[in-house]
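We treat protein structure as text, and this decision shapes the records that our systems exchange. Because each token names a local backbone shape, the row as a whole describes the fold. For reference, a complete record is included directly beneath this paragraph.
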Amino acid sequence: MKQIPNLFTLLNLVFGCIAIVFILQTGQAIVYVDRDGYTSIDMPEKIAMGSLFIFGAGIIDFFDGFVARLFRATSQMGKELDSLADMVSFGVAPGLIIYQFLRISFAKETDGLDVSVGVLLPSFIIPCAAAWRLAKFNIDDAQQFSFKGIPTPAAGITIASLPLIVYYQQFNLQEVLFNKWLLYGIIILFAFLMMSNIPIMSMKFKDSTIKNNAPKIIIAILAIAAAIALKWVAIPVVLLAYVIVSLAFKNRIA
């Protein structure tokens, strides 16, 4: 029974590995240019499948702590194992999504298919920042009801939403998300948010009072409303709201 939570954590890792397989199987970006010079990009489905497995890893990651408490099987090994699994599912896999997006963005340009690998390497800042964030979390026992920097799963899941936004062509954002400068900006932003000491609230409830949990309730309501109105676009919107609300209530979450 004591190993059941660890098995959940390993399933998180397996889902992250499967996500990487799908992300790396995209093979090619198909670029169409019409007579007017308009460029349209067809992103193969497999990278979106990789995103779905990252979401699956996120669901498992959310419940493995609950399972550990249910079986009274929390342990230092479980904590370390959880970070190692998160590194793959929410660090390496999202970093490879950015890598593939950069490849596709450069494919739009003249001789873009021959682009140097050097311009793609910044995508690996994402897994490096995730490793930094997870290591910092493991040596800081104070991060129970608040975090220093956004949690790695939150960053990874947000990046994983990008292929799904493109695949379902929501709000015609596919062209915007394949802008290389935007992608470089996303790398810098998420690396900063993970490695910073910005106070970010945990979604764990301290008690049952509305007053003490008002920020979490606000985020929950915003998440539901955004999911209905924006679908996959809701994920980056909710992350932004999560950071803003955390900063607004920083004196109450520290």
